[in-house]
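WARN retry 2 of 3 for item q-0093 after timeout on previous attempt; input resubmitted unchanged.
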Amino acid sequence: MRSSEEQRQQNIPQGSSRQREAVKPSWYVGAPSSSSAQVAPSSREDRDDLLERMLEGSNLRDAYKRVVQNGGAPGVDGVTVAELQAYLKTHWETVKADLLSGTYRPSPVRRVEIPKPGGGVRLLGIPTVMDRLLQQALLQVMNPIFDAGFSPHSHGFRPGKRAHDAVKEAQGYIQSGLRWTVDMDLEKFFDKVNHDMLMARVARKIKDKRILKLIRSYLNAGVMANGVYQKTEEGTPQGGPLSPMLANILLDDLDKELTRRGLRFVRYADDCNIFVASRRAGERVMESVIRFVEGKLKLKVNRDKSAVARPWNRKFLGFSFTSHKQATIRLAPKTVERFKDKIRELTDRTKSMSMEDRIPKLNRYTMGWLGYFRLASAKIHCEQFDQWIRRRLRMCLWKQWKRVRTRIRELRALGVPEWACLVMANSRRGPWEMSRNTNNALPTSYLEAKGLKSLLSRYSELC
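OK item q-0093 returned
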């Protein structure tokens, strides 16, 4: 920042030397690295200097880079990620002083409703970019404290773990003969977290009262929905960097309980599957675990969506399994339907869009989708998807060639014989039917030349 060392010190309250050291240097991107804060990590067991460690220059720089990398929509103040650095130059010293004095108050989160594939909406809370930066910085110093104690069967939002690890672990249980699953659905988990129970579990390992107060202030920050402020007396809003860790802290008690009982389970955030050898055992486990979750953790289990069933009749993180002994990982039927729904949206012939704009959007979605679902045995699916996507693109092109004269001109340019141009251009069939008849005129090589990427080719490379 542009202010001198003396000016910066005038903006903060007088406190311990440890507090002054934590806020002296500039840290935002573009500042000389030599001016980074150098606060030695505490050797105390009670970790009562966690706020100073959160405000170290190197930690803040890492948090800034992560927030910028993640992008996202602005919060209630309208400040975008691109404007964050300029915003910090103006406001950082005040924010820093408020953090150290314990008077910082987060802004309410902006409520966003995301439609769920199966109906209903998921409520997201979008913090301001400043609060995202602070939450990310806090997450980075809390992770080493909590993560080492988490269960190895918990895979969601943890360093070095991912959804694929959870799916492979579930596959291993099925292959071992545990061919029944207790699929437990927590009803609106992130909206129903009890603040007092959560803070009690955070306080088991965090003794810095300023950090505890800051976390509580984020839980109680409230939401802005349609311009109206609403208090938040429970829940930890999805959308902030800190929420997934807080969810893992609360659900770690469930992990420990399942481990104590000797059960085989795998959990990814609030998605938990327990594997047993028989339906009867599964029903017993389901009832006892529901009592624990609702009695000890004060959470609600959605009994309509929870079930004791065969793993191949359920989905886990978008995947499912085959019923034979190898329990091959496959795409869940609902995953296939969601993929098709998105492709239909991107290739909607009523939306006027050039191929130069449509194909890059398609590629971004299909390649990202395949990057996640490459774990499944999906070669046949990818081949069928490729054929279907090409046909939908031909449909879009035919719809764009509305006039007979335009169709004849375009078909001639593609080398179609004159008689075929006249027959096709004057056809009364609709765009979807004509998309089949234009196979030869618009072959795979034509669409590939336009930039369309093949799912099958990419799947073969990845596998």
